[in-house]
Amino acid sequence: MQSIIEVQHLVKSYQQLNAVNDVSFTIPKGGCFGLLGPNGAGKTTTIEIMEGIISASSGNVLYKGQAVNEHIAHEIGIQFQHTALQDFLTVKETLDLFASFYQKTLPQQQLIELCDLSEFLDRDSRLLSGGQRQRLLLALALINDPEVVFLDEPTTGLDPQARRNFWQLIKNIKSQNKTVILTTHYMDEAEQLCDYIVVMDHGKIIEQGEPELLLKKHFGHVFIYLPVEQVPDDLVTQNGWRIQDEQIEIETDNVEQTISLLIKEQVPLDALHVKSANLDDLFLKLTGHSLRE
Ligand SMILES: Nc1ncnc2c1ncn2[C@@H]1O[C@H](COP(=O)(O)OP(=O)(O)OP(=O)(O)O)[C@@H](O)[C@H]1O
Ligand SMILES: [Mg+2]
After folding, report:
1. Which ligand does the CA of 55 lie closest to?
2. Mutation to probe ligand 1, out of 11, 12, 16, 17 (largest number of atoms < 8 A from CB)
3. pLDDT digits (tens, 9 = 90+) for 179-204
4. Which atom of ligand 1 is nearest to the CA of 54?
5. Disulfide engineering: 141 pairs with which of 57, 58, 77, 188, CB 3.0-4.6 Å?
6. Ligand nearest to the CA of 13
7. Which residues pair with 249 in a beta bridge?
8. Ligand 1-lining residues (CB < 6 angstroms)
9. How far apart are the CA of 105 and the centre of ligand 1, in A?
10. Which parts of the sequence belong to the ABC transporter domain (predicted)?
């Protein structure tokens, strides 16, 4: 595996607070790398050090094996968590303005197609909807045809449909052999997009790896749910069975065997549903609290 960025023992301290506390990981070239964690986990701080925007208190970031220097600005694109757009410019004028900052740029038509901007090119950029604005910001991050694109919570605050549309754009970018580095606190987003994830909480890495392998490692089982009133009390005392939000939650690595038992005990199965563990469950397991608390 060829790596594009290596982060080694990164620390960022603000007075008493270690916003990033000894974080190390390697980002493979190509594909989508996800930095996950709740508010204040240290995601933005970590990627802003990687982008060369802020300096670390200690530790190193290597870009293609070299210390980050000013040349990185030409090879990366950044979509910040909060960005102010220039007032009184249309979307097209905004693209023109940003293109003028770089020597090498992606052809504008290609950018418009890639980020699906054609229907609002002449609109004042302040009047865009949330999803349209994020698409414009993505286009600005791609304007210099970067090898690496940093996206800091690009879908936070978008409605589900706008999020799905945005995911498709990110998949398009991935298919162009660019490396996408994404922060998010949406686990479903990470499952959809990321080939490798680092999960942070309170400035530290609590787990990292390929999402599927992490789920296999932590959950060799699936969950079965049934309405609490339909299951006899004595069954619930078994290992892996518990009451959760008015439902019986059964954690099992053998669905057939569990369902056979339920049939034998004449438990009605019409309201039964089966769910495999997802990254939200993983986060809950690792930290003891859910990501959105
Ligand atoms: N300039 C600063 N001065 C002091 N504390 C800071 C500064 N920047 C960040 N912090 C603190 O560092 C911690 C990590 O912040 P960071 O912005 O990296 O979190 P995050 O994971 O990006 O969170 P979010 O999901 O809310 O964007 C937070 O507790 C934050 O308050
Ligand atoms: Mg942030």
Report:
1. 1
2. 17
3. 999 999 888 899 999 999 999 999 99
4. 1
5. 77
6. 1
7. 225, 242
8. 14, 17, 19, 37, 39-45, 81, 153, 185
9. 32
10. 5-227
Tokens representing 33 are 């790398």
Residue type present at position 253: D
Neighbours of 40 (CB within 10 A): 14
Which ligand is closest to the CA of 184, given by its number? Answer: 1
The CA distances from residue 247 to 172, 230, 235, 237, in Å, are: 40, 9, 13, 14
Write out the residue limits of the CATH 3.40.50.300 domain(s) in the chain. 3-210
pLDDT grade for 85, boundaries at 50, 70 and 90: confident
What's the CATH code, domain 3-210?
A: 3.40.50.300
Residue corresponding to tokens 């296999």: 216
DSSP 8-state class, residue 127: G
Which phi and psi angles does 218 have, rounded to 5°?
Answer: -95, -25
201-255 confidence digits (pLDDT tens):
999 999 999 999 998 888 878 899 999 999 988 888 888 899 988 899 998 988 8
The closest residue, in CA terms, to atom 3 on ligand 1 is 14
Ligand 1, atom 17: closest residue by C-alpha: 44
> Who wins on pLDDT, 246 or 293?
246
